[in-house]
Amino acid sequence: MKNLLFPHSFQKVGWAVFAIGVLTGAYILLVQYDSSYTLNNVAIISICVGALLATCSREKVEDEMTQQLRLNSLLTALYINYLTLIVCSLLVYDLEFLHVMMYNMFTILLIFMVVFRYKIWRAKKVVAEYEE
């Protein structure tokens, strides 16, 4: 089976681009900066590209366990994302739901990033305890 992951070196670049996007997005939200759609596009594209590069890059050791953790994390993120979307569709109405959908563009990647990093951290911790 062909592996479609980016090289490991893309991971650091992804985290840097993701951080730029998050900081830009936070600035837009906090200052309520509306005069430039370009800045909005920078935030959206940076978050998407950065998160994809950070999450879809190989780990230093990319073995079957890592691939299984990646798949399980993706499924967990998918379930959490759509459960959240269903709950929000029942509880949030009108223009506020547009904000929910706007944030929903990013939530599946963000949830995947958190779940996958947590599972990798936990697996490394178990291996370290086993080696002692």
Give a structural overview.
- There is one protein chain.
- This protein has helices spanning 10-31, 37-55, 64-91, 94-131.
- The chain is an all-alpha fold and 132 residues long.
- It starts with 9 loop residues before the first helix and ends with a helix.
- It is globular.
- Helix content is 81%, strand content 0%.
- The mean pLDDT is 91.
- The protein contains 4 helices and no strands.
Distance between the termini: 35 Å
What's the oligomerization state? Answer: single chain
- Low-pLDDT stretches: none
Biggest β-sheet: count, sense, barrel? Answer: none
Structural class: mainly alpha
Number of helices: 4
Summarize the amount of helix as a percent range.
over 70%
Number of β-strand runs: 0
Q: Element order, helices and strands?
A: HHHH
